[in-house]
Amino acid sequence: MTSSSTYKRDDLSIDQRLALATAARRLGEEFTGVFGAETIERFLHTSYEQFATKAAVANFLPLLAERFARQRLHALARVEGKSDGRPIVLFLCVHNAGRSQMALGFFTHLAGEHAVGWSGGSEFASEINPAAVASMAEAGIDISREFPKPWTEEIVRAADVVVTMGCGDACPVYPGKRYLDWELEDPAGLSVEQVRPIRDEIERRVRALLAELNVPVP
User: Domain containing 59: what range?
Assistant: First the structure.
């Protein structure tokens, strides 16, 4: 399927339809007893639609849609009161390609199974900043398999803490939600050497946040 501003299921190739059908089956098995097939199909196809205009990831659209739909379904379950008790932190920036991805990388690495981290962007990019990937690799954390993604209502509502980084008025605001605004330089267009101080400051802030949440770290 070519990049298009209008997503239609009829435009999908046979391979894409099969891939989405397989994804729906996997999600259905994972969320048995939690959500019905109709909800899973809706989340899967709306997730696909959100990535459909990103030509750079066109070959991986079914996989990205499945991964994002899974996150959204977990978020919806949390909103509906089906929680395992772990704190959820959402990191938001404009493109979800640099700062928020590095923050998520540190958070996931340090928190392990004790907390849940998500990230998103108000105008998500087509790929992660290579300098951010390289600088995180220097710290022993691989974020190369992550991908920029948007935020959705259920994801924001499910989060216990929303950390914003430069998205200003574009970041979602929900009453009663805890928000933290981290003023950090945007790594877009910077070299790996220039990104390192930003990376180190993000690690410091993530560690401090985990301490506030009483999440044990190595």
Answer: 9-79
Catalytic residue flag (residue 93): yes
150 touches 57 (CB < 8 A): no
Check which CATH number belongs to the domain holding 134 and give it.
Answer: 3.40.50.2300
Do 47 and 94 share a domain, yes or no?
no
Q: Which of 171, 195, 209, 210 is catalytic?
A: 171
Q: Could you read off the pLDDT of 148-190 as tens digits, one per residue? A: 999 999 999 999 999 999 887 777 888 888 999 999 999 999 9
Rounded to an integer, the average pLDDT of 1-15 is: 59
Please report, as a single letter, which amino acid is at residue 205. Answer: R
Of 2-11, 123-132, 189-198, 208-217, where does mean pLDDT reach its minimum? 2-11
Tokens linked to 22: 């397989």
Same structural domain for residues 52 and 104?
no
Catalytic site residue from 65, 93, 102, 163 = 93
SS3 of 90, please?
Answer: strand
Q: Does residue 171 carry a catalytic annotation?
A: yes
Same domain, 95 and 31: no
- Helices 37-51 & 61-79 angle (0-180, nearest 10): 130
* SS3 state of residue 88: strand
Choosing from 116, 155, 167, 202, which is the catalytic residue?
Answer: 167
Starting at the edge strand found earlier in the chain, the sheet holding 178-181 runs: 116-121, 88-93, 161-165, 178-181
Domains held by the chain: number: 2
Between CA 92 and CA 50 the distance in angstroms is 17
What sign for the dihedral angle of Cα 204, 201, 130, 63? positive
